[in-house]
Amino acid sequence: MTDRTPPLDLSESRQLLGRAVRVDATQAYSGYVLDRDRLVDGEYPLYGERASGAYVWDVDGNRYVDFILAYGTVILGHADPVVSEAVVREIRDGFAITLRKKVQVELAELLVSVVPNADRVFLLKSGSDATSAAVRLSRAYTGRERVIRWGYNGWHDWCAGRPAGVPETAQRTVSTFRYNDLASLEQEFRRHPGEVACLLMMPFEEEPPAEGFLTAAAELAREHGALFVLDEMRSGFRVALGGAQERYEVQADIATFSKAMANGYPISAVVGREEVMRTVGDVHIGSTFHVNGAEMAGAVATVTRLRDSDALKNIEELGAALQRGMAEQIGRSGLDAHVLGVPQMPFMRFRHTDDRVRRNIQDAFYTETTRRGVLFHPNHHWYINAAMTHDDIETALDATAAGFRAAEIAAHHD
Ligand SMILES: Cc1ncc(COP(=O)(O)O)c(C=O)c1O
User: Fold this and answer.
1) Among 356, 373, 362, which residue's Cα sits nearest to residue 335?
2) How far is CA 42 from CA 35, 45, 336, 368, in A?
3) Which helix (H) or strand (E) holds 349?
4) Are 203 and 209 in contact (CB under 8 A)?
């Protein structure tokens, strides 16, 4: 006997997928259709209807506590009324009027006041916009071409995760290194003396930074005449109001932000030291939509709330409670599973020598947690938002407990 919950009704999601594969390139070529990349081979919603606070409802009416949060953008909670109101006000006033809006100055002033080492701000719309602008600025500032980078930095030619469609020359000047391994970073610098424009990196992903690692990496970059650029897309306005620079007491020449900055509205920022940012005048960075104000209003409302409330403290506490609870559950199980990440971006991975068995274990776990109304991503770390409560974490822990039981059964079936 197991206590597995009954299957979810996902019929409307499946029906929409049936229509989408005929017309929607993002769906037709995605893993949902090609079995190899399916997120969860079991039950997992595909289409959402609406979201509020900590919850998302799929098109079949199933409700989930949402730990994906549009890949970390929704920090205050879905459809946060204060942010929505600020955005709607800007929309009602006309947000695309060619002329810059007052809110642009307000946002720049706000960012300079909360982000360490930020003298000036360049606002853009997406994360890839911002990291690509940071690379261009670094190259123009130093007169060098080479980039050492680490982590996911976007999809443009210099950092695309797949080689198809990317000119070989675009990636020839870019290399990477092993995270938390200063020797491997040093080796990269030594291989290209006098050539590196910047070290551009996420401050961490699933593995937190070793004590002093980020500071040592920044020093190494400066010793070699390169800029140190922190890609704070995920860490910014999350691990501290001033991001990883504040949290880990490291200083960046340039930092890039997006995601949590506007609670889901599309906006990004390149911020940096005066001397470096002055190079903006020499380079080409542009977009038709850069001056649109709606998402800027969303960013002002979001960052102000994060600054003036306990939201970030609560997020950290809730994330830590989830990590603690899951680690205890794993300890009681016979599973080779590991809780990872910082509390604000928790994650868990299963290990098994046979990848097919590991995949079955993972599918059983995530099918069960999904059935129990908790939306976790199987391959990407999760996020916590400020609208979640301890009750939501309890719901999540009930679901993970059942998920681990289902995973153990799957492990014994092979
Ligand atoms: C650390 C990091 N950098 C850059 C990006 C690229 O941002 P976008 O997808 O908005 O282009 C992402 C997106 O997930 C990211 O997580």
Assistant:
1) 362
2) 11, 10, 21, 9
3) strand 347-350
4) yes
Question: How far is 383 from 290, CA to CA, in rounded Å?
Answer: 27
Residue 126 Cβ contacting ligand 1 at under 6 Å: yes
Contacts of 281 (CB under 8 A, 6+ apart): none
Considering only CA atoms, which of 220, 201, 223 is closest in space to residue 135?
201
d(CA 151, CA 355): 24
Domains and CATH numbers, the chain: 11-78+310-412 (3.90.1150.10), 96-292 (3.40.640.10)
> Does ligand 1 have an atom closer than 6 angstroms to the CB of 132?
no
- Evaluate: CB of 128 within 6 angstroms of ligand 1: yes
333, with CB counted inside 10 A (0-12, 13-18, 19+), is middle
- Ligand 1: which of 73, 128, 205 to mutate, judged by most atoms within 8 Å of the beta carbon? 128
The rounded Å distance from CA 257 to ligand 1 centre is 9
As beta bridge partners, residue 257 has 269
Structure tokens, 186: 């040093």
What is the number of residues in the chain?
Answer: 414
Query: For ligand 1, is residue 202 a contact (CB within 6 Å)?
Result: yes
| Predicted structure pTM score | 0.95
Per-position DSSP letters for 170-183, written without gaps between them = HHHTEE---TT-HH
Give the pLDDT confidence of 307-331 residue by residue, as tens digits.
999 999 999 999 999 999 999 999 9
152 lines ligand 1 (CB under 6 A): yes
Single-letter amino acid code for the residue at 244: A
Which residue intervals of 143-198 are DSSP H helices? 168-172, 182-191
Phi, psi of 18 (to 5 degrees): -60, -40
Closest CA to 366 of 412, 411, 390, 399: 399
Q: What is the pLDDT of residues 204-229, one digit of tens each?
A: 999 999 999 999 999 999 999 999 99
- Residue 151 CA to ligand 1 center (angstroms) comes to 10
